Amino acid sequence: MSKALLQLDGVHTHIGSYHILHGVELAVPAGQVTMLLGRNGAGKTTTLRTIMGLWRASAGSVDFDGAPIHRHATPDIAQLGIAYVPESMGIFGDLTVRENLLLAARCAKRPADIDTQRLEWIFGLFPALKKFWLYPAGKLSGGQKQMLAIARAIVEPRRLLLIDEPSKGLAPAIVANLIAALRELKATQTTVLLVEQNFAMAKALGDTVAVMEDGRVVHAGAMQQLIDDEALQQRLLGLSLGAHQ
C-alpha cells in the first residue's frame, strides 16, 4: 500500500451535545480511491466535514501529507489542495455553469483565465457542461448538477477530493457516466475519499475501503477483499455486493 496522504488518528467529533465520531482511525493512500462505506447514520458525512474543518474535531488528529490540519480553518484546508463535494452538491443555482466554474477556479478572474486544456478535459468527462455552458445551474438535471459539482472540485488540480454520495438519486445511465468520469480522474493519480451507498460504484472504483459503524471505523482493507467475501459484506453492511451488480 502506498503512503497515506490523509491520516485520521483517534478523531472524535461533537455536534452540539451529540457525540458523533468516536475515535475514527482512517488512512487514505496517496493516488488511490478509498471508499467510505456504512449504513445511514454511521458517521461518514461527519468524517468528511471534520476533515474539511466544517466541524472541528474535539479530540484526535487529522494529518494531511504528514502535517496536522485539524485546527485549520476551512479556507486554509482548501488552499492545501483539498476539495469537497457535499451530498447537497453546493452549486449556485442562479449562476451559470460558466460562472460556477469560474468561482471555483481560484486563480482565474474571468473565464478566459481558466486553463483551456483542463477545461477541455472536463468537457470530455462531462459533455453536458459544454452544451449548457451559459445555462443557469439551477435548471440542470440532477445528474448534470452532480457533474457540475465534481467539475468545480477539479477545475484546478487538487491533491485530495472528498466526495459525498455522488450517485444518490441518479438514474443508472447517469451513474455509469459518473463511474466512467471518476475512473478517468483516478487514472490521473488524484487521491479520492468517496462516500457511497451504490455498491456497483464502490466495486468499480475502490482500491481500498473503510467501513463505519456508530461513529467508528470497524473494518479497513483492500476493496477486492470485501468484494470477494460475501459473508464479510453481510456482516459489515447487511448487504451483498453481488446483489448490486
UniProtKB/TrEMBL annotation:
<dbReference type="GO" id="GO:0015658">
    <property type="term" value="F:branched-chain amino acid transmembrane transporter activity"/>
</dbReference>
<keyword id="KW-0547">Nucleotide-binding</keyword>
<dbReference type="InterPro" id="IPR003593">
    <property type="entry name" value="AAA+_ATPase"/>
</dbReference>
<keyword id="KW-0813">Transport</keyword>
<dbReference type="InterPro" id="IPR017871">
    <property type="entry name" value="ABC_transporter-like_CS"/>
</dbReference>
<keyword id="KW-1003">Cell membrane</keyword>
<dbReference type="InterPro" id="IPR052156">
    <property type="entry name" value="BCAA_Transport_ATP-bd_LivF"/>
</dbReference>
<dbReference type="Pfam" id="PF00005">
    <property type="entry name" value="ABC_tran"/>
</dbReference>
<dbReference type="GO" id="GO:0015807">
    <property type="term" value="P:L-amino acid transport"/>
</dbReference>
<comment type="similarity">
    <text>Belongs to the ABC transporter superfamily.</text>
</comment>
<feature type="domain" description="ABC transporter">
    <location>
        <begin position="6"/>
        <end position="239"/>
    </location>
</feature>
<dbReference type="GO" id="GO:0005524">
    <property type="term" value="F:ATP binding"/>
</dbReference>
<keyword id="KW-0067">ATP-binding</keyword>
<dbReference type="InterPro" id="IPR003439">
    <property type="entry name" value="ABC_transporter-like_ATP-bd"/>
</dbReference>
<protein>
    <submittedName>
        <fullName>ABC transporter ATP-binding protein</fullName>
    </submittedName>
</protein>
<keyword id="KW-0472">Membrane</keyword>
<keyword id="KW-0029">Amino-acid transport</keyword>
<dbReference type="InterPro" id="IPR027417">
    <property type="entry name" value="P-loop_NTPase"/>
</dbReference>
<dbReference type="GO" id="GO:0016887">
    <property type="term" value="F:ATP hydrolysis activity"/>
</dbReference>
